[in-house]
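Q: Could you fold this chain for me?
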Amino acid sequence: MSTIMFQIIAAGVGACIIFDLWQRLFAIFTGIPPSNWGMVGRWLLGVTGGQGLIARDLSSRPAHPNEVMAGWVLHYLVAVGYAVLYAGLMQAGWLRAGLKDGLIFGLVSVVVPWFFFMPALGNGIMARLAPNPRLACMVALVMHAVFGLALGGGFALLGA
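A: Sure. Below is the predicted structure, expressed as structure tokens.
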């Protein structure tokens, strides 16, 4: 495996682990539960089963026996995908490895949940159909900021 591939996978997986640990700490202090990767897996399995990209009433769909695993796998694959993008932006000279650029990347990356995953999971753009859209968007922003910090810091630690 090439050095850059190792750095991408290590930084992406490491940042995702930090993201997951932060969600659990955040839940302890705020009472806001961490992401439900089972629902993400249910959505993914529904998409691959032909149910369409935008879920309607996802929570009322029957549970799939592999949905939790599918959700966790997608979660980590997306994290590695973000690491690929970050590495590409470093290669282009737009970002550097480090906390500052990592934070910037994390804050910008929140457009993905706001404009793709929230609607795809049936919550509308920027969670407008969720019980508390502002809270959902702010939590996503905080989580992506932490992820970006961890990703940029991970690349810096790995000497990228």
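A (continued): The mean pLDDT is 95.
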